[in-house]
Every structure is written in C-alpha cells, then in structure tokens.
Amino acid sequence: MFDDIPDLYKDQTADTEEEGWRYVIGDRDARRPPELLTRDHVARCIVREVKAGRGSPHGGVFLDIAWIKEKIPNAAEHIKKKLPSMYHQFKQLANLDITEEPMEIGPTTHYIMGGIRVDGDTQASTVLGLFAAGECAAGINGANRLGGNSLSDLIVFGKRAGEYAAIFAKENGHGTIDNDEVERIAKGTLEPFEREGGENPYTIQQDLQEMMQELVGIVRTEEEMVQALEGIEQLKRRSANTFVPGNIDFNPGWHTALDLHNLLTVSEAIARAAIERKESRGGQYRDDYPAKDPEFGKVNVSLKKDADGRMQIARVWIPEMPVELKQIIEEMG
Amino acid sequence: MTTATFSIRRGGPTGGEMVDYQTEVSEGMVVLDAVHQIQAESASDLACRWNCKAGKCGSCSAEINGMPKLMCMTRLDTIPLDVPVTIEPMRAFPAIKDLITDVSWNYEVKKRIKKFKPRPPDAEDGTWRMQQEDIDRVQEFRKCIECFLCQDVCHVLRDHAMHEEFIGPRFLVYSAALEMHPLDTEDRLQELKDMHGIGYCNITKCCTKVCPENITITDNAIIPLKERVVDEFYDPVKKFVKLFRRRKHDR
C-alpha cells in the first residue's frame, strides 16, 4: 500500500514498513503505517487487489498479524489479549488461529453516512414531529465516519432527540389521524398473504442486495448507477407481487415483504445522491470522478418526495459553522 | 455441495411438531445460515431470533441436537450431517413460536437484584482508585452476552421449573460481578440465601459447559458466592461467638 497513499494523508503516513512498525511499538517520531488509513481507502485497495487477480481463495485478501512473533516475545498472548473477540471468532468459525496463520478478509458495509435530514441541535426531521438519531440520521459524520464515533453519536444525539421530542409532544399535543389512510395501509400490509402464486420476498431482497453491491458499491460510476436505478424500478414492480404463507405472528417472510418498500426507497436515494455527487469524497469513490471537488464540499445532496411521489433531488448549502465550533477546530488544528 | 436435513420445531406456545427441511450446505456454514436458507427457500414464516451473527448479541440461542448452543457459532462441519440435525427452542422458557421463546422472566429477575452501590469517590475529582488484580476478577463475568443458555441447561430451572425460587446461573454470575466489585458496598448475601436460592445449585457445572463466552460460571462465580453465604450464616465458630455475645448482652 505504500505506493497508494492519498495526498491528504501523505505527510502523516509512514514511508517504509520499518517506520510503520516503529509507530506500532510507540515511537512518537514515526508515522502511521498505511494499513491504518481510513476504511474506505483500505476497502478500495482490497477490491483493486482482487480485481487484479491477486485475491485470496474466497475472493478477499490475506491479513497477517502473526508475523509480529518475529518482533516481540509472547506475540500469541499479546494478540489474544488485544483482540480477544477476533481471536475467538476466527478460532470458532473458521478453525483458524490468527496468532499462527494469516486470516482472509474482505470489505463489508461500513456505515450509512447519509440518512434522514435532521436539525443539528434538536434532531428534528423535516416531517413535523419526527425525530431521528444514530445511523438513520444524516450529518454528524460528514463524508466518512471514523471508528468509535457511532457510539458517541448515539449517546449524545439520542439524548437530545429524546429531549426535543418530549418538548415537541408537550407543546403540540396529539396530531390527527386519517382513519381511511390507516385502514388503507393496514389492508395493504396484509396483501402478501392473499397473493397465491406471488413471488418469495427473500428472492427480491437478495437480488436487490447483489445488484446494489455490484453497481452502487465500493467503486462507483454513473453508468453503473443509472443501470441500478433501472434495476430498482423492476424490483419495485416485483415487490408489489409478493406472497408469504402463515399469519402475522413473528413471520420473518412477511417482515421482509414489508421491508422491501423501505429497502428500495433507501437504495434509490443512495443511487440518485451518488450520481448527483460528481466527485470522490470520504466513503463515496467515483471511478469517473476520482478527485475531490471543493464546490461539492459546500453542499449536501437532499432528496424528498414530490407531489407525484417521485424523488426530487436538490443541492443544499451546508450551513456555516458556528463561531464557537470554528474556534475549537482552529485550536485543535 | 451436499444436502442435509434439518428437523426444526414448528408451532405456537403449545404442542408443536418437528418438521424436516432439506437444504444445501457449503463450506463455512453455521446452523443459523442453514435456518436462514430454509427461511428463504421453503419456510418464510419460520420464526427465529438473531442479530449479530458473531456470537456477541446472544439472540440465537437454541438446542441443536439437544445441546444448548448459539446457532450462529455452531459450524455445520462440527455436527454429523448424515442424520437429521434437530433444532429446538430453549426448553426452560415458554415457547412463543417455532424457535422463539419468551425470556422475559430473566429481565424480571434482574430487577430484583440490588444495584451497584459504589463507595464515595477516592479523589476530589470524583474518581476512584482500584488495583488491577481486583478488577481483573470481575472482568470475566462482564463477558456475559445474556444468551440464557446457562439458564436453559440448569436442571433447577429446566427440569424442576423453580423459576420462583432460583435466579439461575446467569444471575448468580451477575450477583458475583457486583459482590466482588472492588467499589461496591452493597450486601446481597441475605437475598442470595433466602430469595435467590443459591443453595439449590448443586454444582453440576452444566452452565459452565454451555457458556459460549467460556465464563467459568460455577468455579469462579457460584462457588465463591456459596462460600460467602456459608461464612455469613453457617459458620459454627461465628455462631458460637454470636451466641456468647448475645448471652453477655442479655445479662
């Protein structure tokens, strides 16, 4: 990886394996080894290796941590102590001792950085009375979540969302519910039980997963994402014709049938926003626009439902950073 | 690719029957993968709890060929596939549907255990000072993922259904974690003896055997608690001293 370090991190990244090792053992003058670069970059490097035909037998790459036994005494004990869960999981699930052998790894979902558009202080969404926090909400992590930030996001903004939702409820009382609408939706949710001969919802879910992984995954292009949008339309039609057996008690097939609507909505929003953002930034990597574009650094891509139920896309200016936050960043910087 | 048969318990709170499903098995699969495959292929209304698929959430507890195990951590290449693999829900708890049981009794039991009560902070900034070896002792108990497999295998709960009188291995581990915590000042021995039924445990160590986190439940949690209870309530020397004191006091 030494020949593929993003410019932004060049100054902070080691030039040689020797320097990387010094960093690991606590040399404050040494810089971080490149395998500690952000997850999106490491994931792309893995994909590139696999595409170039240098992948491991199961389509990933090898990660070797056993080699530290050449460098330190009691390496096996050290690994078990520092990575107890990983040691245990590899031992039990793959019959592999990571203190002795390299492990096979591959990229999986990192995090959804986008999500429900919320107010940064109150976590209120643009739907009156709806509050969101955590991975379903957008904004806090910018273009790329760094390790550890999800938990602090949940604790801080989960608390705020709860508090502001309580205030909202107190000030506004009950809303009104359109009973016809409720009945229509309730009836709609039960339809999969009645469509004898309809499609298995699991098949549709799996097809969506495979298509999104393939066409809107780690390395993206406009051409492939447009293809994905067409695929989503087809899957939408299929999702309206699902059949599930049984009744509404703990029925995972039925849940999957109901989830499809949301899965397809989120997939479409991701594909549309990713097409609109013609640059590479954080978790999004565009093969057709590999560079960062400072103009896109000033905007969010926002989607909402228009009067015809279609997704409306817009670029929205990112609000200017409050003075007190700017100060903190300057002080840290 | 080989095909294997899985005999899975289907049905609601009462009755229920074992139904055979066939599915293809491949390298690296665990029991939960097979259940998911069966859901997708032939039984989409088959109910089972699961979440992390990494042995960390404790949701997919079941009895595989009669042994309480996590479905996500049980590799198919560790069990014979030439005969049907049986998958049943945990027996110590009421069945809800298929592989799902109602484990809410556990959460009620937990509420009955006196909470952590730390001593006043050691330093002015509100922090404490502990010795590493003191905290190492309770660290093991904190690995518990609350899969309740130990509760399921415990004969006091499973065979004798003494849920009202015995809190089970999980909550003896929880009590031990609190009792042995270097900062805790609460005393839970009276309840352990009278309401939590620690005396019912006769150290068969089945709980230790099934624990997916390899917590040494019996040796490191239950036995030390039993010793504390004995020291407090059944020590003959102490009893004698107490008797003597009382007489002196009476005079």
Short structural summary:
The complex is a heterodimer of chains A (333) and B (251). Chain A has 333 residues and is mostly helical.
Beta-strand share of residues of chain A:
5-15%
Quick one: how many beta strands of chain B?
7
User: Could you spell the SSE succession of chain A in H and E letters?
Assistant: HHHEHHEHHHHHEEH
CATH structural architecture of the largest domain in chain B: Orthogonal Bundle
The number of helices of chain A is 11
The total domain count of chain B is: 2
Radius of gyration of chain A: 24 Å
Largest sheet of chain B: 5 strands, mixed
CATH superfamily of the largest domain in chain A: Fumarate reductase/succinate dehydrogenase flavoprotein-like, C-terminal domain
Fourth-tier CATH superfamily name of the largest domain in chain B: Alpha-helical ferredoxin
What is the count of structural domains of chain A? 3
* Widest beta sheet: strand line-up of chain B: 2-1-5-3-4
Given the helix and strand composition of chain B, which structural class is it? alpha+beta
Low-confidence stretches of chain A: none
Structural notes for this entry:
The complex is a heterodimer of chains A (333) and B (251). With 333 residues, chain A is mainly alpha-helical. Chain A has 3 domains: 7-105, Succinate dehydrogenase/fumarate reductase flavoprotein, catalytic domain (Flavocytochrome C3, Chain A, domain 1); 110-176, no CATH class; 177-317, Methane Monooxygenase Hydroxylase, Chain G, domain 1. Chain A has 11 helices and 4 strands; from the N terminus they run αααβααβαααααββα. The model of chain A has no long low-confidence stretch (mean pLDDT 93). Chain B folds into 2 domains: 2-101, Beta-grasp domain (Ubiquitin-like (UB roll)); 104-236, Fumarate Reductase Iron-sulfur Protein, Chain B, domain 2 (Orthogonal Bundle). Chain B is built from 10 helices and 7 strands. In chain B, a hairpin with a 2-residue loop joins strand 3 and strand 4. The A-B interface holds A 85, 88-89, 92-95, 200-203, 206, 244-247, 249-254, 256 and B 12, 28, 30, 39-40, 44-48, 54-56, 73, 75, 96-98, 100.
